[in-house]
Amino acid sequence: MFVDKAEITVKAGKGGNGSVSFHREKYISAGGPDGGDGGRGGSIIINVDTNMSTLMDFRYKRKYAAGNGIDGSGKNKKGKDGKDLTIRVPDGTVIRDKESNTIIADMSGIKTFKLAKGGNGGWGNKHFATPTRQAPRFAKGGLNGDELEVILELKLLADVGLVGYPNVGKSTLLSVVSKAHPKIADYHFTTLFPNLGVVYVGEENSFVLADIPGIIEGASEGAGLGHDFLRHIDRCRLIIHVVDISGNEGRDPIEDFETINKELQKYNPELSERPQIVAANKIDVAQDEELVEKFVNYIHDKGYKLYKVSAAANAGIRELVKATSGELSKLPPITVFEADYVPKPQMKGSPEELVIENFDDVWTIEGEWIERLMRNVNFDDYESRMYFDRVLRNAEVYKRLEDMGIEDGDTISIYNMEFDYTQ
Q1: 50: CB partners within 8 A, 6+ apart
Q2: List of residues 6+ apart from 379 with CB closer than 8 A
Q3: Could you give the domains of the chain?
Q4: Is the pTM of this model over 0.85?
């Protein structure tokens, strides 16, 4: 199954906590703090795998998490870093932030990209020793890693895109000019996913051709298959617009040509300015010479180059291939999309965002700011508790409680810790 779009959640590892430890050795009564730092959390790494051609691997697995860092320990032992997680994607995959739809990275321009960074490990208590604080009984907690919801979008890396109504002969043309073997049959929507082929023009001269299926009127709004596969034209430097000139299905080739171009313009206005070569296909079975002449004159008046071909009979194909190669030599290389994603600053919370609720004589306090603060406090140590009290007072948390009516003896509950309030 060809899958070219997927949504996944990635979560880098949390850093390990710093350790509270003191050196213990025979005949040494006060060895000092020797708590090691926590290990760094693992990161999420994106790697390009040239053997992959779809995003099928992401159809059933949507969540990816790297390893957490290990806590530090005594004897200045640093915790082990969390294991990075590598995710493989096909060449040409564009990574977007789900919320803003901005581009984080285009994996056609790079082979490896760090999508989510692991959190730093916390400092052990050895870092907090000073001449006046010789036995710190607290350490820092590890930081959380980045967490993102992203959209993976595969945009084929093709120099030339074949567009046109279903059953106009695009797949046949691709099979004739390259070694690709797409499914070919005499009914609409035979091709259900894009096919790629390499066209060799001469020594050291080739280009990649893509058959884009299912574009019909309304494709840009979701009709047919075109809505799913129009994205694969985005990178194409040149478009070969294949039109059935035979008239055997009672269609007007001019109307078909304009309809497809309108759909391209609706999907992406830049595509309407992309260079085009018109391939008037099935010329060998054309019944109405007047219809052919009318179409040829119309295309020439529009300023496009037109080639009469028959993919089935291999007529006019060589001239079309040479003309395509000549046009490509004048055009810039395949588009690599520039990243425009601006990472959000990590939400550290603030005292003003704390949620304070009262239940009789119990007052609960919740919020990211105070949760982060508690990870860095050792409540078994008097000095750490005094530090915690000072931070709450300086942040005016007690003042908020007093304004809300807290009284002496009421209980303050902060997650898994409770204490009595005294003024």
Answers
A1: 90, 91
A2: 385, 388, 417
A3: 1-154 (2.70.210.12), 160-328 (3.40.50.300), 351-420 (3.30.300.350)
A4: no
